[in-house]
Amino acid sequence: MSSLLEQIKGCIFNLDGVIVDTAKYHYTAWRRLANQLGFDFSPAQHEKLRGLSRMASLEKILEWGDVYMTEAEKLHWADVKNNWYVELISSLKPGDVLPGALLFLRQVREAGLKIALSSASRSARAVLRSTQLESYFDVIIDGYNIRKVKPDPESFLLASQALGLKPAECIVFEDAALGVWAGVAGGFHVVGIGQPEYLPQAHVVIPGFENLTFKNLLAQFSEAYASDAMRVS
């Protein structure tokens, strides 16, 4: 394999749980919806919604509550939940960016790479504006662009196409198993953010961006690919 540093020309970041942790706001809004419908659900259940679209999340929650809705009602309650969520994230500020993420974005930019955001959230731009991160991204793909949910790779393919790059020229950063699968399926180099046991398909897994340099990340990729090559041989 040629030098990964020479091959990589772009980075594609998911938003929730990667750049900013907005999961707590999603949970608050979803739980409020569930409570209004007469039931409750736990943080552990909410973890199972990672990587799902808004409508897919709603359908899962309705299943847990054994609640039936027409499609029109689902659209209504999805909008209600989103309005609550937007109210909650309006208080976000630069200090809410996850540790090390801003410095890592700067390093990627200084390395001359293109940067894209790929998020199923329709509130992605609002989050970036609140945290003053919008200017770091050359391309923003959000819930208004994406039609196919993960593990379909559409969200990342749209980002790489908008950057003018091939999947093999991009690194995807994801914290959800569905997102990792989507990145691998699309032919991207994939970094999982979290615990290795939950993200077994990722090429490299990191706990977060704190104390991570872009150069060190590329070294981890080289080691991972060398290890894979040895197992195959």
Question: What report would you give on this structure?
Answer:
This protein is α/β, with parallel strands linked by helices. It has two domains: 4-21 and 94-232, HAD superfamily/HAD-like (Rossmann fold), CATH 3.40.50.1000; 23-89, Putative phosphatase, domain 2 (DNA polymerase, domain 1, Orthogonal Bundle), CATH 1.10.150.240. 47% of the residues lie in helices and 11% in strands. It is built from ten helices and six strands. It has helices spanning 4-7, 23-36, 43-47, 54-65, 71-89, 101-110, 124-130, 154-163, 177-185, 214-232, and strands spanning 10-13, 114-118, 139-141, 170-174, 189-193, 204-206. A six-stranded parallel sheet has the order 3-2-1-4-5-6, sandwiched between helices. Strand 4 (170-174), helix 9 (177-185) and strand 5 form a beta-alpha-beta unit. The longest helix is centred in the middle third of the chain and has 19 residues, at 71-89. It is globular. The mean pLDDT is 91.
